[in-house]
What we know:
- The chain has one domain (about 35-230): Decaprenyl diphosphate synthase-like (Undecaprenyl pyrophosphate synthetase), CATH 3.40.1180.
- Helix 2 (about 25-30) crosses helix 3 (about 35-55), helix 3 packs across helix 8 (about 220-235) and helix 4 (about 75-95) runs parallel beside helix 5 (about 115-125).
- The longest helix is centred in the middle third of the chain and has 24 residues, at about 75-95.
- Helix 5 links the parallel strand 3 and strand 4 (about 130-140).
- It is built from 9 helices and 6 strands.
- The protein has helices at about 5-10, 25-30, 35-55, 75-95, 115-125, 140-160, 170-175, 220-235, 240-245; strands at about 15-20, 60-65, 100-105, 130-140, 185-190, 210.
- By secondary structure, the chain is of the alpha/beta class.
Amino acid sequence: MICLDELKRGEIPAHAAVIMDGNGRWAKQRGKERIEGHQAGAAALRQMLEGCLTVGVKYLTVYAFSIENWQRSPQEVEALMYLFVQSCRNELDNLMQNNIRFRAIGKLDMLSGECFQILKETEEKTQNNSALTLTVAISYGSQWEIAHAAKNIAEDVSSGKITVKDIDENLFSQYLTTSFMPNPDLLIRTSGELRISNFLLWQLAYSELYFTPVYFPDFTKEEFYKAIAEYQKRERRFGKTSEQVCKV
């Protein structure tokens, strides 16, 4: 059992990113339909939000649906889109009561009109909330995001808005869909898979990575606190030596 008081005395990641993996396998183990696993995952995300608010995480970014996920069966994709719509409607009051801002990133023009509209409406209604920013990556792929940023930079160079000499890491970051938030301090992936699956490739350059065999529907607040406790044991050097970090 993690002691919350002790956890709060340590360094809390300002930004946690999560690959919410294992919903389908969780459902299969229990003889349930895959969509029931995704519904259970939505409940687990609610627990994570509570955990973030409790310990002071300011940004939570979750990988809900990748561009590659469009290759899944039409039935599962349709059920997921319906779940996204219903979750936004059902959770709006909770977001408002807890001062949580909602953002969506990804190739959103691939979404159905209803799904796109509800995401934008939820963004608008929560835009003044400030305790926590929940960002949902939906129809998202980091390779697409990087290529899209490069295209926009090229267009701005061509139009004279910027010059080639202006291009550096900081400017490039401003063209990414995540430009409104800091890079993740901690990446969590559930279900035992050991890869990052085209998620925030640019932004994860110096993030601490935490992998757990727990399927996402079983990823409780206590499991989230375990990830933060592990994060607090890490020494983040960002290319420096331990001695240089200790001097800061």
